[in-house]
Amino acid sequence: MSDRLAAASLTWLLLLSWVFAVLVLVFWAAGTSAGHTSVAWWVVVVAVGLVVGTGVPVLRWLRPAVETLLFSHPDDAADLIAAVGRRFVSPGTSGPEALVSEIAGQIGLRLRLPYVAIVTAGEDPPPAADGSPPAPERLTQVPLTFAGETVATLLVLPRSRDRALSRADLDLLHELAAHIGIALQAVRLSTDLRTSRTALVTAREEERRRIRRDLHDGLGPTLASLRLHLAAVQQLLPEQPDRARDLVDRLRVEVRTTSGQVRELVYGLRPAGLDEFGLIEALRSRAGEVAGVAVSVPDPGALAALPAAVEVALYRIGSEAIANVARHAGASRCVVTLAVADRSVSLQIEDDGRGLPDPLVPGVGLAGMRERAEELAGTLTLRSAGTGTTLVAVLPLALASSSSLSPAPNEAGR
Amino acid sequence: MPVTRRSTPSHTLAAALNLFVSLFTIVFSLPIMQGGADASDEIPYPVIILGFVIGILGLVSSYGVWQGQRWGVVLTIVLNALSLLSGAPGVIFGPNAFIVISSVIGCVLNIAIVYLLLRRSPAPAPSPQVPA
Q1: Quick one: which of B74, B100, B101, B76 has its CA closest to B20?
Q2: Alpha-carbon distances of A407 from A11, A87, A95, A414, rounded to whole Å
Q3: Is A151 exposed, middle or buried (0-12, 13-18, 19+ CB in 10 A)?
């Protein structure tokens, strides 16, 4: 309130000075001096006309100029950017939402704006200080962008009910927006990183629990049973060799079953074919299991050893995509192509089926494939031009290079 | 890290003009002030004292403007407005041509300084986005 009063005082002081100067200069130009006791009527008319004629434009110019000087000075941007920067680098316990709210508060405080909010797409603006929702038609929106992508929107209510934000205000807000956009992106990435790290730890613990359960509930009792049966065989062997033989036959079946359980467990950790034959052969093996579609996996030539995580992801995506082609595409032919570049590897699955339905409703399989690609900072695209569908998964090699490289059984990557 | 401020060309010019006006006012009013109220029969003594104070403060405000400080800009604007209000009557009621001409030049310089301080540097403004 005191800021508004200061701005109004300065504005009206300057206007008063202007009016006074105009009157004095007109009277002086008309030859009025200290000795005169009367002033010609036309001088008064000209003076009043000039005061009225110039007063309104001068006031219109003065108001935003004074507000710019007091509220939107370039120094404010510099101070605000510095304050926001300090807030980001200083350690704090507040979460991203609180941080965004604090930044909006800083902007409102330093630029003397009655309402400032930062909202992401689809989010409703928070209520004003008095609890009422801001009138959308009065809000000015400034996009907060990073690398051409709008990460959030800055909503600002002008200081005056009857005047929009000045050009200086908009300049300042756009200047701020560029910096805040970068900062928000950093916060978002940091949050994503924390979330993904938590998900990683959770997934690892879930996997450990599953393996423990499989070993404890499946393999453990079976081995105990085998031990008891072997003891029985030992007792029966001298006197009842026929019963002992029958028991050994049953034991053989049981061992085979257990062996299958172990294989399933190991396969769950990493597809067996990958270690034995390499990615291409594993995909060919998977393709051979599909009926009704001729799936070919061309030889890409000599490939460098791929990171284990990338190899497993490509295998899973390829397997799921081939199964989808067989289930939904109505295709007669499908080609799976693997190509490795310097920094990325791509897997393309192309069929000659009926194409994608319109509208496309992504199922669990497609979401899973996309998730696998994004887990490794890769992309998954699906396109269809009338007939046929092409799915392309591109995974970077750089991010996964820190993980262990898969063993190269015969030829690297094959 | 402290924020580095830089004066714009129009502010630098305003600071120079304000320094000139302030020095002129001090040099003009100091001898009359030393003579006392009786020596200033042509100009009211309070106006002389006010002019001297404005001149001294003007030196400080010129430095503030030159340094790109907002307080300097605001102080200079206020001082020039007061200077205009106190000096403008000299245009009509000045007892001699020197005071009249000085008052006219002073008024014009006061207005010019305020204009230079309040005008915006020509920079392209992005178009506002108003929600539909």
Answers
A1: B76
A2: 78, 47, 43, 10
A3: buried
Residue in B107, B117, B129 closest to A141 by CB? B129
pLDDT digits (tens, 9 = 90+) for A76-91: 667 777 777 777 666 5
The two tokens of residue B80 are 């020039």
pLDDT, tens digit (0-9, with 9 covering 90-100), for A374-408: 888 889 998 887 788 899 999 988 755 544 444 44
The whole-angstrom separation of Cα A296 and Cα A315 is 15
Residues in chain B: 132
Asked whether the beta carbons of residue A65 and residue B120 sit closer than 8 angstroms, the reply is yes
Structure tokens at B96: 């001699």
Q: In the beta sheet, which residues pair with residue A119?
A: A153
Q: Which of B68, B70, B88 sits opposite A21 (nearest CB)?
A: B88
Amino acid in the structure at residue A309:
A
Tokens 């067996």, located at residue: A272
Distances (CA, A) of A162 to A48, A158, A166, B129: 27, 9, 12, 18
A339 pairs with which residues across the strands? A346
Q: Are A85 and A79 in contact (CB under 8 A)?
A: no
Sign of the alpha-carbon torsion through A218, A220, A224, A230: positive
The one-letter amino acid code at A140 reads T
Contact criterion met (CB below 8 Å) for A66 and A106? no
Tokens of A66: 């004074």
Q: CA A216 → CA A177, A209, A222, A224, A261, distances in Å?
A: 57, 10, 10, 11, 12
Are B26 and B56 in contact by the 8 Å Cβ rule? The answer is: yes
Which residues are bridge partners to A299 per DSSP? Answer: none
Please count the residues of chain A: 414
Query: A315, A329, A327: which is closest to A373 by C-alpha?
Result: A315
pLDDT digits (tens, 9 = 90+) for A231-266: 989 988 888 888 889 889 988 988 998 888 888 777
The contacts of residue A106 (CB under 8 Å, 6+ apart) are A80, A83, A84, A87
3 state SS for A58-106: HHHHHHHHHHHHHHCCHHHHHHHHHHHHHHHHCCCCCCHHHHHHHHHHH
Residue keyed to tokens 């799936």: A295
CB A121 within 8 A of CB A150: yes
Q: What is the pTM of this model?
A: 0.53
Residues of B with CB under 8 A from a CB of A: 1, 3, 5, 68, 70, 73-74, 77-78, 80-81, 84-85, 88-89, 91-95, 100, 104, 107, 110-111, 114, 117-120, 123, 125-126, 128-131
CA atoms of A349 and A372, how far apart (whole Å): 16
Sign of the four-CA dihedral B46, B49, B51, B53: negative
Q: Rounded distance, CA B95 to CA B91, Å? A: 9
> What are the two backbone dihedrals, phi and then psi, of residue A38, each rounded to the nearest 5 degrees?
-135, 160
